[in-house]
């Protein structure tokens, strides 16, 4: 069936805003500007402040939800299902996981390339599969176990590509290795978030935009408050600011004031995450979760191509091999091979029922706010 113009728009919006989200964060990291009090020029490395901006973008999804609800009240249709009462504190545990995982990933993005960052996020399949078996009683199919195995192989190949690539003063080998390991560690936390959402949140039939916005509210408030103690906590080699602390918000604002393009990059990060979440939710509803997964894979290609074109990283052939192995692992885990096998075996197109398996952890569903 041919896509409508609206569906094409949603797919394009998800691809573009998802790419902007990662690239704008990396763009901000590449800027050099003086800090407060005459401090010499240094890189803009403020991962926790960037994470606060991301949660601000997620928080804006609450406004979108209430606008849709007001519209539905005036023009009733099927786009807004009746909302069941729920305790907003249900979103606190997954929001804490989201806050921790996102902060770690922004720290890692300062240390490694944007393409490796995007590819290594595929490790989430491994941990969601294992946690779904351990805590949700899932039984994974053989193809899903093969998908997990392929993902592990793909991660090893991408890691080797990072080891063998040329490294400059900005990304030393030790930093790249640390960044890659932090990304994989963050995926463990994201997997826990997905398990919590599956076990406690989805059964309440909460609208996805409301879910994203509520988690964004918790993340924004909590992490904003944590910026105060982070200003005084020493972080050693993990710190990217001259004071050597976990986060120096004042230094960040001084750098933004002296280099306005940093503000543009931060604005791109904040606005893109809101539109990306809306587009992703709409693609799942209008098309399928499998389409959303394919578009997310295309996002990796766009980020990789632009990073190479802008000179942010060096090309290594192993990355191509690693990407395709990761893509194969994702396709196997999400059952993307089933429609093709059915068509080959029966000589006819698969039905919608055979072609779509949209479960959260045993299928193609993604966390509520799959952002970075």
UniProtKB/TrEMBL annotation:
GO-annotated biological processes: negative regulation of mitochondrial outer membrane permeabilization involved in apoptotic signaling pathway; positive regulation of cell population proliferation
Cellular compartment(s): Membrane; Mitochondrion
Superkingdom: Eukaryota
Residue segments, region Disordered: 348-372
CC terms in the record's Gene Ontology section: membrane; mitochondrion
Entry's family note: Belongs to the SLC35F solute transporter family.
Role noted for this protein: May play a role as a nucleotide-sugar transporter.
Subunit structure: Interacts with SLC25A5.
Protein name in UniProt: Solute carrier family 35 member F6
Gene of this entry: SLC35F6
């Amino acid at each position: 069936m041919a896509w409508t113009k609206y569906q094409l728009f949603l797919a394009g919006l998800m691809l573009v805003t998802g790419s902007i989200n990662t690239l704008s964060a990396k763009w901000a990291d590449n800027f050099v500007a003086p800090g407060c009090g005459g401090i010499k020029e240094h890189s803009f490395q403020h991962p926790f402040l960037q994470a606060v901006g991301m949660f601000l973008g997620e928080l804006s999804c609450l406004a979108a939800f209430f606008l849709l609800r007001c519209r539905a009240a005036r023009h009733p249709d099927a786009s807004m299902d009746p909302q069941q009462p729920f305790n907003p504190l249900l979103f606190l545990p997954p929001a804490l996981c989201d806050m921790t995982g996102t902060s770690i990933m922004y720290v890692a993005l300062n240390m490694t390339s944007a393409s490796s960052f995007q590819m290594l996020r595929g490790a989430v399949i491994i941990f969601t599969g294992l946690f779904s078996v351990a805590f949700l009683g899932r039984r994974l199919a053989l193809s899903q176990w093969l998908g997990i195995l392929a993902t592990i192989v793909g991660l090893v190949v991408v890691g080797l590509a990072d080891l063998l690539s040329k490294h400059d003063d900005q990304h030393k080998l030790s930093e790249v290795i640390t960044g890659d390991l932090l990304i994989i560690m963050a995926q463990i936390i994201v997997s826990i978030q997905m398990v919590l959402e599956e076990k406690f949140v989805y059964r309440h039939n909460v609208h996805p935009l409301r879910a994203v916005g509520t988690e964004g509210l918790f993340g924004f408030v909590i992490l904003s408050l944590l910026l105060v103690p982070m200003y005084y906590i020493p972080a050693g080699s993990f710190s990217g600011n001259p004071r050597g602390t976990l986060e120096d918000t004042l230094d960040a604002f001084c750098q933004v004031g002296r280099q306005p393009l940093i503000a543009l990059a931060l604005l791109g990060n904040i606005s893109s995450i809101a539109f990306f979440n809306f587009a992703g939710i709409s693609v799942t509803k209008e098309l399928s979760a499998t389409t959303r997964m394919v578009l997310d894979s295309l996002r990796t290609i766009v980020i990789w191509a632009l990073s190479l074109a802008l000179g942010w990283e060096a090309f290594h052939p192993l990355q191509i091999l690693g990407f395709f192995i990761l893509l194969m692992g994702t396709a196997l885990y999400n059952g993307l091979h089933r429609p093709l096998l059915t068509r080959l075996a029966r000589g006819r197109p698969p039905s919608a029922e055979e072609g779509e398996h949209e479960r959260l952890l045993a299928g193609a569903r993604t966390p509520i706010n799959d952002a970075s």
